[in-house]
Design goal:
The chain is an all-alpha fold. The chain is 79% helix and 0% strand.
Length: 402
Amino acid sequence: MRRSQGRDVSIIWTSFLMKIVGLWLAADRNEQRRRDFALIYTVATLFISICIAFRDIYYSWGNFSNSVFICCNILYVAIVLLKISVLYAHKIEFFDLIAFTQKNFWRFYNDPQELLIITGCKKICNFSVVLIIFCAQGTCAGYMITPLIENIGKNESDRALPFNLWIDFPVGLSPYFELLFIVQILCVYHVATCYICFDNLLCIVNLHVAGQFRILQHRLKNLENAIRDETSRLPVYENCCYERLKDCVEQHQTLIEYCQRLENIFTVMVLGQVMFLAVVMCLVGFQLFLADTPASKKASLVLNLGGTFFQLLIFTYSCDNLIRQSVNVGNAVFSGPWVNLPMSKAGILVRKNLMIVIMRSQKVCCLTAGKFFPVSLETSTAVLSTAMSYFTLLKQSSLENV
């Protein structure tokens, strides 16, 4: 049973991707050196990618379709730079948060109902992470396959790279072409890894925190049954009820504090992600439906658009689930044993504490986008509406440039 509980594909894959980026916990000094090297490699990859993209858009500015494609690539690199900068600025707080999560959330559960709740969270996390990774891999494969297909039958001097370099150098000749091709594809895959790992981690954490709120609700609802199993004497029952309730209140306070720490670290990242998703869905949709795009590239664009849409859905769902489960704590209190308690000193204390729990649960725990608005499922509809508006404007601009 313990071994089956420890297998969590989403956490294993997400932590592995975070280690590749270089922003994860290290067990010793040697492992910390590997993290530092990975972070340096990440920064170097992003620097190379942004230089290639800006030089490409400088020489391709007159071509509207190419400019849209390059702007989309620049946005991906820009959002990755934002995420890495935010997490590096909150590096200590982030590592403390992950250590706390590993110790208190990603652990073994002996209670069958609590295990069932966590198992449900893990299933959603595993499905989401696997699907997002698959879409990201398919998108990256499109960047690699498209130039390979275009280069069939061409001379060495006419071969094309995944991204134009615009330099006075025979990039199509061997072995320069092969080396530059490998460098560009490595940059593509690393940017994709950086892009999905932070969002996967945030969604996993949101869903597991929501699961902890559900566990708290379960403990509040079944408080009476757990106590009656221990004692049937009324005075002892009252005191035991009060002690159990104190544990639940402490757990509630811990979860509230955890959500505040999560908000302080990720609020800027969430704002950037919401704005990014609205724009990138518009740009990818333009390349897919309006631009003259090769068939091999359209396959990757379909995966890109589908992955972006699903990423928006699971991201907003995880935030919305956190809001709903934090509010449901107050509703779970009404199913507790307070009705059967006499109006003794312990009974009055229990009722007062329950009222405080109910009032505190009305102030929802949520993630906000830069402190401007809370993120929920309604945010996904707003993002899609904004993306459609941008798509209409982009379509009109493309018709004017024809």
